[in-house]
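Structure representation:
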Amino acid sequence: MELFVVLVTCLSFLIFLFLWNQRHAKGKLPPGPTPFPVVGNIFQINTKNVSKSISKLAEDYGPVFTLYFGMKPTVVLHGYEAVRQVLIDQSEEFSARGSLPAADNINQGLGIVFSNGEKWKQTRRFSLMVLRNMGMGKRTIEHRIQEEALCLVEALKKPMVGSPCDPTFLLSYAPCNVICSIVFRNRFEYSDENFLTLAKYFDENAKILSTPWIELYNAFPSLLHYLPGSHNTLFKNMTEQRKFILEKIKEHQESLDLNNPQDFIDYFLIKMEKEKHNKQSEFTMDNLITTIWDVLTAGIETTSLTLRYGLLLLLKHPEVTAKVQEEINHVVGRNRSPCMEDRSRMPYTDAVIHEIQRFIDLVPNNLPHAAAQDIKFREYLIPKGTTILTSLTSVLHDGKEFPNPEQFDPGHFLDKSGNFKKSDYFMAFSAGKRVCVGEGLARMELFLLLVSILQKFTLKPLVDPKNIDTAPLLKGVGSIPHFYEVCFIPV
């Protein structure tokens, strides 16, 4: 009986807090569907495809509205104009990172992706400087990607000719090694057990983060944290990844030359040494571990998922694949490695890569932003700290900019003369202050790795292309393609 009284008291208090928050927010936040006490609008949202629910709600409430995930209000921006206003025109005011409890539980506000304030500014600025010093955007990193592409091609040749192959992990090894060479100084053999385990964790994390369960966990973290569920596997994986990173840091500490940094870890350790007497320094061991985790996650899983989804689309559309290979043969040939200078002479291939990224809509609702201060936005007043959700789906699948947006069509990025056509609506890497740090590296990898594969292999599906399902298997934080097998036939 006492437990029942406690539960009723707690529930009554939560409802009181919710109603109080609603009353005080009225007239400030944009309107939206009426939320239920405690649970908010969670029953009005399809947790299997939040972005689709948001598009439907936008039809009734317009491009700016408020949703409650639990008791937490989230201002939703839908459509190019609203998203651009937040990410670009008022990027400073909306530059804060909103809460994502599934990640916050481990990262604790450290690193690049989920930090805020001075910690975010200093860590991001420093990381960009180091990545550029390590060759990002330069010939140095281009050569590394070309070397890794050759290793990938050899790995794809190893299975018996014509035999089915699951490309999931093979396509993650190349981007993983590229970023590992920047962070850890060395690449790994594709048979290395530690390397294989690291890749497995990143793949598993991406799948878990895109499940409906994690959508619920992010809405009710206090309630669900101690229950059984896939969030526990996610936290375990992240903990194991951090142990691996810490071991690598300890190896670097033993061989560190303060006058001759060799990789990302060296640069950060030297910065830590320089600021060791500064008690307010943002350059700590915990921040180093989380920053490396951020760099690895951004540098591995997004690129490998795009490659995997991209090959699935090429299997579905063999006529597109044939045109890309024709352009490769004409510009690159069969013998030399492709290089970034080739891209300007390969408009169709460039358009295909952009269309892959547009179509798959890899991060449908972006990572959450937050108001960095009290902001007057249009006719509303958005309080500091309010979570902001920017629907990238609504921009990448805008019907006016991209006719028939649900169809895969490289023509979306080609003009009438067949030249590549840029679009301001292409926000696959987000935009503004929080744009993806590794955008330049990812663009280079996607071009060089995809062209290298299509230069050396014919892709053969195991089923009729008409029966290939290109809709995402999971669509949460990310878009995850269905499992498939493919035969890589050497040309």
About this structure: Residues 152 and 170 are 7 Å apart (CA to CA).
